[in-house]
Amino acid sequence: MDPVNLCLSPLCSCMQSFVTRQDISYVFRTKEKLHDLENVMKHLMATKETVRRKLDDPQHNGKLLDNQHQVKDWLRDVGEKEDKVERLLDEYGKGNCVPAGSCSLNCFSRYKIGRNAFKLKEEITQLTIKQPEIKFTNIPPPKSVPESSKIVGEKILSNLNIACSYLAEETNDIIGIWGMGGVGKTTLLKKINQLLLDNANMGFDHVLFIQASQNTQLEELRNEIAKELHLAPDAVQKDIFNALKTKNIVLLLDNIWEPVDLVGLGIINPYRDDDDITKSNKYKVIFTTRLEDVRDQMRASKIIKVECLEPDEAWALFKHNANLAVIESDERINEIAKQVMNMSGGLPLALQTLGKAMSKRKTVQDWEFILDSIKNSGTEVLQGVQGSFLPILKLSYDNLPRNIQECFLWASILGWLSKDDLIECWICLGLIGNFDNLQQAYGTAKYIFNILEEAGLLYSSDNGCVSSHDVIYEMALWIASDLGMNMNKWIVEEYDGLAEIPTENRENWRMADRVIISGIKLVPILSLQCDDLLCLMILNSSYLKNIPRGFFGQMPNLIYLDLSKSAIKKLPEDIKCLVNLQYLNISSTCISSLPKELVYLSKLQYLMCGYLRWLRKVKNGLLSRLHKLQIIDLYPYGWVELEELKMSKKHNNIKAIGMRVVSQEVLRELSCLPTTQLHIELENLEELVMNGNGSYLNYLTITNNEKLQKISWTDISPPEHFHALKALFISECNLASFAWVLHLPSLALLNVQHCAEVKELFYVEKREIHQVSERPMFPALQYLFLVYLPKLVSISNFAVEFP
Q: What's the CATH architecture for 489-615?
C-alpha cells in the first residue's frame, strides 16, 4: 500500500465518528481553540482582580458584605475554572496529541481536548458575565438598652462594636475577651451571639455558642459542637472538620479555664495565613476567660479587656436592680446606697446581686444595718482582688430564709445535677419542710427556685439543670467552708477514674460533714472515725465495684448516703451501723437484692432503688419493718408481694412509691397509694381500667401484656387522670390506638414499640375528630419513639399537630 494511504486510512476510519463541521474543527483547530480559551481566561482573571480590589478596599472596613455567599460562590467557581484550564493546557503540552505510531489515537486525543476547550470557553464567558456586584452596608448598631440602664448599655455597646468590627474583617482571627469573674464577659459574648443571629449571621454559615466550665474536657466541647451541627453524638474531630471545611464559622467559647486545642475540636487551624478566599474559609474564634495565662496561651490576635464600671455606670446599674423609688425617697438612704454601691468596686455581678438584695429594704435602719454588715464582713481573710467581693455578694445569701440558704448551697455546689435530682436532694435532706405528697414538695421546690433566680443566685439552663455564676459558686464554697476557716467542711472532688484517693484527701474526711466525690475506683480506707460526717455522695463511679467491710462503721452519724450510678454488686453487712440514716440511694447500680441488714435502719425515710436491672422481688418483712419509710422507689424492675405492700401501707406514711406490678391484686392496692412510677407487666390482662387515682403518676410502662386490647377510664378523662405523666413506654401489647395520649398536659416522652396491631397510632372516630382537633395536642411532647410497628400505615386518620 502507498505510504499516503497507509497514513490516511486510519485517519479516515477515525473521521467516520465525527458527524459535524464543529466536530472536525476540534481535531484540526485544537491549538486555535486553546488560544481562544486562554484569552477568555485572561479576561476572567482580570475581572476577578477587580472584584478582589473592591473587597479589599479600606473604605469598606467594618462593613458587612450584603451578598457574601454569592461572591464566595463566584470566586470559588473562578478558581475551579482556572484549575481546569491549567490541566487542559498541561495535557496538550505534554505531547498527548503528537503522533506516536497510531494516527487514530492522536485524532481522538485532539478531539477530546478541542471539545473540552470549546465548552470551557463558553462556561468562562458566562461566568465573566455573571460577575457579582459588590455591595457593602454598615453593620446595624446593637439594639438599644432600657433607659434605666442606658449608661451601662453604652459601656457594653462600646465593646460590642469593637467585636463586630473584628468579625467584619476578612482574616481568620482568635479574639480573646478577658477580665475578672463577674465583670460581664459572658454578657458581652451573649450579645455578640444575639447580634449575629439578628443580622443573618453576618454572612457566616454557622455561629456556634459553646459553654465551658472549670472542669470541661475537650471531648465534651467536641460533643457540644457536634450537637450544634446535628452530627452523631460520637462524632470525632474528623467528622467536625469535614462538616466545616467548606463553611465560614464563628465559634463562641465561653468561660474557658485552660487553653483549648482548636485543631483537636475539629476547627480548621485559625493561625494559618491564607488570604485566598477561594482556598480558605473564614474562621473567627471568640473566647472568654478570667485567666491571663490562658488568654496568652490561646495566642489571641485581638484582645477585648472587660473592666469594672466607672462610678456613674455602677450607680446606674445598682439603681436599676434596687428599689429606685425608695432610694430617691430619702436623702439618707440615697447617701447610704451610694456608699454600698462604692463598696462593690464597680463589679457588675456584685452591683446586680447587691441591688436585688436591697430591693425590698425600705427603711433607713435597714440600709444602715446592711452598710455596717458589709464593713464588718472580715475581708482580711480573703486573698486577691476577686475574693474581696465575696463578703459583699454574701449579703444576698444573708437575706434568704435559713432553709433556702441551705438549698442555695446545694444547688450551687452541685450544679451538675439535673433539676429533678436536685429537688430530690432538697426533699430528702429535709430542706423543703413537711409535705403530704411529692407534687406538693415539687411545688415548694419550684417556689424556692424562683426566689433564688430573682435574687440572681441561680439560673435555669437549657439542659434541665440549674447553674450559678462562677463567682457565685466560689461564694457558695466560701460560705460552706465557714467563710474560709474550715476548707474541709464540704469536700467536693472529681477524680476521673483515679484508682485510689490520695492519703491527704482521705484524712480530711474526719473534719468534713459533707463529702461529694465522683469518678473513683476504690473507696478510701479510713483510719479515723468520721463522727461529723452527715452526708456522703459517691456519684458516677462506674468502675467502683465494691464497698469494703468496715467502711460504714467509721461514720455512725451519717444521715444521707448516695451510691447511685456505681458498679457495686452488694452492700456490706456493716450498712447496719448507719442507724441514723434517713436517705439511701443505690439506683442504677449492679445490686440484685436488698440485704436483710437494712431492717436496722430504723430512721430510714427514703429508699431509692430505681433501675436496678437485676433486682426482682424484695424480701417479705423488709419494707414493712421500716416504719418511717415515706418514699419507696423500686421502678422499673423491683416489686413486692401483696401482703408486704399491705403491711407497708399499714405501718408507713407512704408519700410516693414506684415499682413493677406482676399481679392484678397488687395493681389494685397501688391504686390506693400515691404511685409515681408504675411498670405494668401482666400476662393475662385484657383491659386496663383507670379509676381516677393516677394523678401522682410521672412514669408509666406497659409491657409484655400481649392480651391487652383496651385502656378505659371511669368518670374521668385521660388528661385529668394523667395530668402529671411525663413519660409513657408501651411495648408488646395488643393495643390498636393511642389517641388518648394526645392531650396529656405534661407528657414529654412517648415510646411505642413492638405492638403488632397498630395501624394508625392516633385513631379517632370521625364524629369525634372536630372535638379532638379543637384542643392543643401534645403541649409538652419533646421525644417520640416508634419502633417495629409492622402494620403501621399512618400516624393518624386526621391532622395531628406536633409541637
A: Alpha-Beta Horseshoe (3.80)
